[in-house]
Write a structure and sequence with these properties.
The chain has 514 residues and is α/β, with parallel strands linked by helices. Helices cover 47% and strands 16% of the residues. The N terminus and C terminus are likely disordered.
Length: 514
Amino acid sequence: MMIPSACKGIWRAAVQTLRTSRSSGPCRVLSTFDGPAAGLTDAETIFALSSGHGRCGVAVVRVSGPASATALKCMAGLTHSLPPPRTALLRSITDPQSKEVLDRGLILWFPAPHSFTGEDSVEFHIHGGPAVITAVLQALGSVPGMRPAEAGEFTRRAFQAGKLGLTEVEGLGDLIHAETEAQRRQALRQMSGELGRLYQDWSHRLKRCLAHVEAFIDFSEDELIEDGVLNQVDRSVCDLQAEMERHLKDERRGERLRSGVQVVIAGATNAGKSSLLNTLCQRPAAIVSSIAGTTRDVVETALDIGGFPVMLSDTAGLRDSPDLVEREGVRRARERVEQADLTLLVIDSSHLPADARKSAAFLQENLEAVLPTQEHLESDRCLLVLNKADLLSEDQRKVLDLELRRAPGLPPVSLISCHSHEGLQDFLTVLHSRVKTLCGDPLSDAPTLTQARHRAHLQQCYTALAQYQRFRDTDLALAAEGVRLALTSLGRITGRVGAEEILDIIFKDFCIGK
């Protein structure tokens, strides 16, 4: 068969693009779900308890798949038509085998594609007693073509049906596990698709860049491509690199908010570190004793500080000790300080110099002895906590406060007493402000990276775009490969990248051969 010359380039571009992604198929779905549910077929109908376990007023049992309508009819005693979509009906829930009434509750019918999974779905809203739930689940298991769902399988099917993007799936998981108000806000924002839309926009722009470069390689010799196409690609690549660089330089705010700010209490023995931990979490989480070196391991507790998640760690007192166990505790303490997002350096106020003018130098020496690097000293990753303020006279506190206000270069200093709770509220205000700065505002700021895998793939994307810049003037094929690698890396975040989308843009943007 003879192929017109104007069509040969199109054919070459199609073959080349499809060849590079042959291993991925025409539209590969990149999913983090690699568990037992990965090989399921569309013919299987699944069911599971979708509400929380334990005794409750109402429990929700969800069914999804082609046998959903059958399950609804035989469990709810429907002999003819199905109920109106998304309308709750009060019915007796019966066992399809014995015809015994198991419960009386609400049924809801969600025909495809207007359901969470995109498939025919049913919900049974029943009483939340363990016996009722067990009976209904056993009855569903007796319906032909039904089986219990694997963990995360409903959400997986929603993703495969295009109901949720991969970042939205992750946002849904974060929303379910959110324990603080700020975590809820960030997860809800991601589940609504804001982060996914940002990455989809970048992905669309990369597809255009790749399509233009591929078309230029194949058709420029025939003068079928207008001048300036590569200049447009150059500008787009530079703009994308700048946007990605700003996105990556977020100081891990979203990741901190998702997993919790790592706050470490450090200092010398008997400074009151364990007392501070117990005061903040309002329970005896750590042993408090007048014996130096009581804490020898890391004691952790999760806190909600003004809506922000904090993982608070009490550590062993920093000192030289002949005891092997205590020395290991000190090593772990220094390791935690090095990894911490924020260090609370606790100092016994009674150990301050008698001359208040020397207090600033004394505190600076303590900072340098505890914080591992100059970077930690110069950053906002430390707060000074002067404990046992109740042992100081009023005059001593006034002079000390005046001298510390004049001292340059010191982090914020809080004078508190874990015994009398004096100054504790002011300290909590400072701590909340610092934690909020480390996490950012999940509502007002731009969407941030929330997972380490997002950061890794974006860094790969950024590096691949640098390959385009490096080979732009010497080898366009290698430059195009850089854009393709960038697109693939970005597709691993969003969950989808397809070769036919590149071809669509080639045919749409270029009137080749008319």
